[in-house]
Automatic annotation (TrEMBL):
InterPro entries: IorB_Oxidoreductase, Pyrv/ketoisovalerate_OxRed_cat, Pyrv_flavodox_OxRed_cen. The keyword Iron does not apply. Pfam families: POR (PF01558). Residues 12-189 form the Pyruvate/ketoisovalerate oxidoreductase catalytic domain. This is Indolepyruvate oxidoreductase subunit beta. Transmembrane segments: none annotated. Keywords: Oxidoreductase. Gene3D superfamilies: Pyruvate-ferredoxin oxidoreductase, PFOR, domain III. It comes from Fusibacter paucivorans.
Length: 193
């Protein structure tokens, strides 16, 4: 069994750590050895957040080196460019097309860059998902993270190997389980492999 490396990136407040916990929990229940690492220094202030999830038959370290990620999951468009060097040459990027302007953009010092998704598509195999629209259809914008997890699960072919409902139930508040299960399914359905 091959080991897989998934790097998730975005900014604070997007639920990236929760998404990694859902993924890790489901993988463990599915029989994989899983290691997870998270970095969230200035996350509370909208700073960069990354998590690294490695899984397979036997994994010895949670750290993913440059050019070693099988999948780069970006919850915010600009963050994709920052972490793209970690994606392997035959890896795949999953990008949420949702844009969160940084402080310099909000103050008008610089514009939000255009064409980021198109530039990345020209470089690597890319799945672009408008998770904001999908989350709005679910009824809660905060489900974007779980929608992207659903897309990742489908991309990796993991939708049938574990009980993802149990992972959602273990990781989110009881009153949010139903809406997150719906979000997970919508995320899976958004990807055609």
């Amino acid at each position: 069994m091959k080991n897989y490396n998934v790097l998730m990136c975005g900014v604070g407040g997007q639920g990236i750590i929760l998404a990694s916990k859902i993924l890790s929990y489901g993988l463990i229940k599915g029989g994989y050895d899983v290691k997870m690492s998270e970095v969230h220094g200035m996350a509370q202030r909208g700073g960069s957040v990354t998590t690294q999830v490695r899984f397979g038959e036997k994994v010895f370290s949670p750290i993913i080196g440059l050019g070693k990620a099988d999948v780069l999951v970006s919850y915010e468009t600009m963050e994709t460019e920052r972490w793209l060097p970690y994606l392997s040459s035959n890896g795949k990027a999953i990008i949420n097309t949702y844009a969160i302007p940084s402080a310099p953009i909000l103050t008008g010092k610089v514009p939000y860059p255009t064409g980021v998704v198109e530039d990345i598509k020209a470089k690597v195999n890319t799945i672009a998902i408008n998770a904001e629209t999908l989350a709005t259809s679910v009824g809660n914008i905060k489900t974007m993270n779980v929608i992207i997890v659903g897309a990742l699960i489908k991309t990796l072919g993991l939708e049938m190997i574990t009980n993802w409902e149990e992972a959602i139930e273990a990781c989110v508040k009881p009153n949010l389980v139903a809406i997150n299960l719906k979000a997970l399914k919508i995320g899976m359905d958004a990807v055609t492999v």
